């Protein structure tokens, strides 16, 4: 059964980047689910972070929340097998760190199990309002990245693509890669927003924070 079409709302002018930063800095760990069946109640709104196991998901979540150890990264990429949930003081607004894919030195049967759970989550989760897909700017849009984009498009799920580790390239090279990815997505007819991102030098954090505020319908209290 397809997810209902999600109409993205625009952020209001009353929301400032400082509001968004304070909101995200309240983020706390909620729970880890080893399978889709053990996820929290499918209510409220949540945004998921997905990507290859070495794309920098944990570093991204830690950077936008300004917390070094909130999302813990394994020394061995791909060993994080749980669906990890976080909330910003309100459990009806959640961030979700999905298991990494494509890189892990684990048995093929385990990879297939992860992929099955990931697909169940993306297709069936009603509270999922957006997907942040992370892709290393030096090796953007590998096969499974594009598969994720097509799954999301088929389910009418908005996607925001982060070209991570942009600090590894010079400014001109990073901008050229950004344009190439834009062109490639246009050829695939995939309506995906794209930005440069670096957890190391904080590039792109404000843009991502505002995107999350939009998807999670954040409204600052007076």
From TrEMBL:
PANTHER family: ENGB-TYPE G DOMAIN-CONTAINING PROTEIN (PTHR11649:SF13), MSS1/TRME-RELATED GTP-BINDING PROTEIN (PTHR11649). It comes from Moraxella macacae 0408225. This is Probable GTP-binding protein EngB. NCBIfam families: GTPase_YsxC (TIGR03598). Belongs to the TRAFAC class TrmE-Era-EngA-EngB-Septin-like GTPase superfamily. EngB GTPase family. Keywords: Cell cycle, Cell division, GTP-binding, Magnesium, Metal-binding, Nucleotide-binding, Septation. Its cofactor is Mg(2+). InterPro entries: G_ENGB_dom, GTP-bd, GTP-bd_ribosome_bio_YsxC, P-loop_NTPase. One of its GO terms (molecular function) is GTP binding.
């Amino acid at each position: 059964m397809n997810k209902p079409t999600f109409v993205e709302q625009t952020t209001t002018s009353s929301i400032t980047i400082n509001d968004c930063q304070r909101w995200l800095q309240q983020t706390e760990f909620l729970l880890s689910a080893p399978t889709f069946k053990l996820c929290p109640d499918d209510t409220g709104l949540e945004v998921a972070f997905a990507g290859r196991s070495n794309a920098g998901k944990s570093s991204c979540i830690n950077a936008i929340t300004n917390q070094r150890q909130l999302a813990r990264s394994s020394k061995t990429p791909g060993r994080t097998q749980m669906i990890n949930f976080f909330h910003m003081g309100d459990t009806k607004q959640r961030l979700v760190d999905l298991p990494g894919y494509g890189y892990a030195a684990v048995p093929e049967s385990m990879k297939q199990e992860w992929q099955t759970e990931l697909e169940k989550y993306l297709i069936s989760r009603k509270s999922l309002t957006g997907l942040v897909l992370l892709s290393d700017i030096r090796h953007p849009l590998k096969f499974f990245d594009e598969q994720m984009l097509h799954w999301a498009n088929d389910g009418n799920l908005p996607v925001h693509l982060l070209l991570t580790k942009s600090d590894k390239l010079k400014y001109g090279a990073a901008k050229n890669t950004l344009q190439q990815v834009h062109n490639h997505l246009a050829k695939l007819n995939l309506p995906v927003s794209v930005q440069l991102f670096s957890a190391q030098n904080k590039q792109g954090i404000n843009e991502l924070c505002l995107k999350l505020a939009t998807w999670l319908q954040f409204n600052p209290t007076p």
